[in-house]
What we know:
- There is one protein chain.
- The protein contains 18 helices and seven strands.
- By secondary structure, the chain is mostly helical.
- Strand 2 (about 400) and strand 3 form a beta hairpin.
- Helix 6 (about 140-160) packs antiparallel against helix 11, helix 8 (about 210-235) crosses helix 10 (about 265-290) and helix 15 crosses helix 18 (about 505-530).
- The chain is globular.
- About 50% of the residues are buried.
- Mean pLDDT is about 80; it is low at about 440-515.
Amino acid sequence: MQSGFGLLESGSVSRKNEVNIMAKNAVDVLFGGISYWMFGFGFSYWVDGESNQFMGVSNFFFNPDIGLVESGHLYSLFFFKTSFATTATTIVSGAMAERTKLEAYILFSFFNTFIYCFPSHWMWNSRESWFRQLGATDIAGASTVHLVGGVTGLIATIMLGPRTGRFDEKATASKMGSPTNAVLGLFMLWWGWLGFNCGSTYGIANKKWVLATRSAVATITSSIGGGITGIALSYITKRRKFDIVYIINGILGALVSITAYCALARPWEGLVIGAIGSGVTCLSVPLIERLSIDDPVGVIPVHLVAAVWGMLSVGIFGQVDDLQDNLDYPGLLRGGGFKLLGVQLSAVVIISLWTSVVSFIVLKAIDMTIGIRVPLHEELLGADLVEHSVNGTYDKTTGEWHDVTGKLVLVIDTSTKEEYERSIHILYLKLYNDIVNTVHTGGRRHSAFGFSRTPSRSYVGHCRHTETAATENDTLERSRRDSLAVISLNGAGTKFQRGSVRRKGDADMAVAMDRLEDFVEETAAERTRSA
Length: 531
């Protein structure tokens, strides 16, 4: 699952952040795993120790006696549930992508276990647990994993704010760095979901194998219904185009939707639940964008929205489980009325409230100590360069940016507000010049800062001046000259933040350059003030 999430997220973000997002998926296992061993399992489960309706209060620093008859079961339970705990954190990394400090994310990965383990105790500890006594059912983690991860992702992305330029006037959705990697990640998650859902029956003895096989079939039929729905919605809404994002979100939304009911669903129910889950997932994406919530990987629609539907679907389709007593009350369509639906809704509301409050406290504490968002210049440079020295190096102490050959490219001066704004000004121009160079040399890049900038046909033919500044002293002047090449189009203009720019002589070129500089200065000043 971690490999799938890593590929999906790295393929969905811009190329300057793909290594960083993979590193964060490793961090989830490392720091989320150590915290789950220290206190997560103890809070989540009662194993030969103290417990109450709210939490477990024993078995911290998990280390059961290997001489116990049940030790094998305990070790397997810890291993399996650790994967659920780290997955709940991995989900959040997609919502925080491209603008979060790695140091802050490490702390968050450690403490997010605390957010996860209490709902896990309420739902899964035993038949005496809070939600189980009410009759709530969540077989494989729609609420405890996906709802917790989705709500935490929502809180995190609201606190972080959108990526620079994401919702500026005439800006478009960010481009996927590698759609191929994203689809490959989908396939790995698809396969991993079978392990999660089937494994949640905890064995094959005592007819558990029946539930495991039913989980497998329901998981597959749900993903089939979701994938078909995603393709159909894309074809209808995207003018006969098959949008990769719709396909990915449709299948994943369906998989999340069936998670709560997988072992008890009939094949046709899996199809219906998956199709509806895919529909609400895909249709909620534009609504979230309309609210100016920047969710780079689709965490909120896929995990939060689909998880809510998945939990409610149990209350609609649920039938009593005679094999392992996973479900005590029939659902609405089975003649049980609204009781089970109300119980499932109550679980959704309680877990959402808990997650919202505690995740805000954790993230706010981190933000008040070391900060959670990277500075503007680090966001523009990209985390791969800043955090991992990929394709160059950046020294956070001196502000020096060197390319792969070791040549000094730029110095970010943060000594004063004016110098910082000037450095950001130059950085913007250099990044636009990089687009010119890439297009001129036959490269594939046609976007700035990860957001679409569609060049006209005359763009390539007239972006001839791509000379790079040789020394720091003439960086600004040469960048200004290169930027004139970016906007001199001789005909149909290209869309920039403030509208279309057309070349009509030197006077218009000067006006266009002023527009570019005004945009850079306004953006730098706004981010500096907010910082």
